[in-house]
Every structure is written in structure tokens, then in C-alpha cells.
């Protein structure tokens, strides 16, 4: 991973976050006229603020992504056997799915009655889809770590919006761009690190996630 490739991933993630937040935010505003930053109804102002928020979310997703890569590298050194770390990630992802639903169920009066089952289900399906394409482009061992990244890491990154004094719309506005940014990063990682024919340690680590 060169500095040039790192900067590409950094700025492109910010761009993905900005575009996603702008499109999603405008869609939410047109379907709910009360939705807007600082209660301002002007579409142009809100679009600008949504784009700026998307840039920050892209940076936040990038930080979470590299934090996971660091944890993954350390865990592989600690567990020695790769399948132990993979199993732990798999069990954690499964547990997090039910835990998220249970937590949202307890907040259903504040966050809406449907979010407690729609959000975990949609996030789990999306994570599996991304993991499928990741494994197809690299190797099968990348499936579980990708699911872990797409579900557990995304939920941790979006936790302030889930656990704070927010509503369902705010949760969706936060978690959707984070998920898309993480998907963009994980699908580009193996392309930036090296081709499928390279045998370097860094390429192998990258292709395992």
C-alpha cells in the first residue's frame, strides 16, 4: 500500500460519503419536509450541509476501516491459527445481529416500531451480498471477515446515532453512507494492494478481509 494509493482510498471514500449523503438526504427531505439541518427548509442549503456531513462520514468510515485492519493484523498474530479468528468474527457477527435487534426493540417507541427488525435484517443481507462478491473476487476466506466488517464495524461506527437522542431517519442517514463507504473500501482494498497472483504478506492479509 503506497502513499498514493492510500490517498486515493481516502479521498474517494470521502467523495462516496458526500454523494451518498446528498442523494439520501435530499430523498429524505422530499419525502419528509420537516427533515433538514437546523430546521432550515431551503433545499440548496440542506444539500450543502449533507455533502459536508458526507465528507466527515467518509473520513470516519476510513478511520474505522483502518482500525479494523490493525485489529485484524494483531489478532492473526495472537491466535496463530487463522480459523480461530475467523470463527470469532463469525460468532460476533451473528451475536451482533440479534443484539442490535434487541437493543432497537427496547427503543422502538423512540426509533419507530419497524426499525428493530428492518435495520438488522437489511444490514445482514447487505453484508452477506458484499462478502459474496468480495470472496468471489479474492478467496473464500474473505467472506466471514467481510461480513464482520460490514455489520459489526458499521454498527460500531454508527453507534452514536443509534444510541443517542435521535430518530429512525437520523439512524438511516448515518448508517447508510457508512455501510456504502465500508463496502467501497473493502472492494477496492485487494485491487490497491496487489493482483491475485502476488504472494506478498501484505496482499495475503488484505485479501483475507
TrEMBL record:
UniProt keyword annotations, A-Z: Membrane, Transmembrane, Transmembrane helix
Transmembrane segments: 7-28, 48-71, 83-102, 114-133, 142-162, 168-189
Keyword DNA-binding: no
InterPro entries: KinB-signalling_activ (IPR024164)
Protein's UniProt name: KinB-signaling pathway activation protein
